[in-house]
Amino acid sequence: MKIACFGAGQIGSAFIRGVLKSQIVRPENLLVKGGKSGTAEALQAELGFRLVRNVADLTDCDVVCIATIPSVIPSILKELKGNLGQNTIVLSLATSPSIAVLQSALGSHSLVARAIPNTPIQVLAGMTGVSYGKNCQTTHKETVQALLGSLGQALEVPEEKLGIFGTVAGCGPAFVDVFIEALADASVLNGLSRKEAYKIVLQMIQGAATLAQESQTHPAVLKDQVCSPGGSTIRGVAALEENGFRNAVIQAITKANIH
Ligand SMILES: NC(=O)C1=CN([C@@H]2O[C@H](COP(=O)(O)OP(=O)(O)OC[C@H]3O[C@@H](n4cnc5c(N)ncnc54)[C@H](OP(=O)(O)O)[C@@H]3O)[C@@H](O)[C@H]2O)C=CC1
Ligand SMILES: O=C(O)[C@@H]1CCC=N1
């Protein structure tokens, strides 16, 4: 597979690291174009992909990804128009613009898709939602699925659900990181070292997620199994409820919701 990526910032670099780690693309078949700050050049020195010198080099790419903030995208689309092969799919990883806007900028026959990945793609543990423009046929979807699926799980969703999918899966890691840090702070407050705290917290979170996934048991049942009568856990659960933990999480997702 030959792919290109515009942007080597947070999600661009996670994508680049992921596709090289999964070996879905070889470094010589990965072309990257960065912005002005030199992040792409620094990453290239570490990972050995190719830097894009000329957009005309992209015509034989299977997929051209766009991993920049939305405001830069119109100028990238202008650069791309006329430099894409007949079967090159433009895959935007940005929260906007919509497929309709991408397609109208690139031409009515263009192959366009949108995906919202998350930072765990760099360790092949991603969860990515993807939506396709109307010109994408099964073979194009298979190419994108192979690419994104190599980074963890990738699920096709209608574009109207991509925002909330991307909010939970894409913003979610930051919320979980806040929770991890808070658990570690509480552990340190109560006498553990930072190192011990993170070791315990990370394995506990991974274990709880694995149990929920493998047992296919409702989280309320799993929670009840931990709460011994008159025991410690139920006192902690009551404290979470008293402090609006559930509501805080619901508000966080609702405020973050990508439209
Ligand atoms: N961060 C995340 O976890 C996720 C982000 N996204 C989406 O991805 C997009 C990027 O976000 P994020 O990675 O966090 O942002 P960053 O600011 O970290 O990265 C954006 C990158 O784009 C580069 N850039 C700017 N202009 C151009 C250009 N003309 N051509 C090529 N590259 C350019 C910038 O380079 P320079 O600084 O050198 O100008 C920068 O490195 C956003 O739309 C975001 O919504 C989606 C899912 C998850
Ligand atoms: O913060 C953001 O806007 C992006 C979208 C998903 C994750 N980060």
Word description of this protein:
By secondary structure, this protein is of the alpha/beta class. It has 2 domains: 3-156, 3-Layer(aba) Sandwich (Rossmann fold); 165-256, Orthogonal Bundle (ProC C-terminal domain-like fold). Helices cover 52% and strands 14% of the residues. It has 10 helices and 8 strands. An 8-stranded mixed β-sheet has the order 3-2-1-4-5-6-7-8, with helices on both faces. Strand 7 (126-132), helix 5 and strand 8 form a beta-alpha-beta unit. Helix 6 (159-189) packs across helix 10 (245-256). The model has no long low-confidence stretch (mean pLDDT 97). The site of NADPH dihydro-nicotinamide-adenine-dinucleotide phosphate has 27 residues, from helix 1. Belongs to the pyrroline-5-carboxylate reductase family. It comes from Vagococcus entomophilus.
The CATH superfamily of the largest domain is identified as: NAD(P)-binding Rossmann-like Domain
CATH class of the largest domain: Alpha Beta
Mean pLDDT: 97
Strand content: 5-15%
Number of helices: 10
CATH architecture heading of the largest domain: 3-Layer(aba) Sandwich
Keywords: Amino-acid biosynthesis, Cytoplasm, NADP, Oxidoreductase, Proline biosynthesis
Catalytic activity: L-proline + NAD(+) = (S)-1-pyrroline-5-carboxylate + NADH + 2 H(+); L-proline + NADP(+) = (S)-1-pyrroline-5-carboxylate + NADPH + 2 H(+)
Family: Belongs to the pyrroline-5-carboxylate reductase family.
EC number: 1.5.1.2
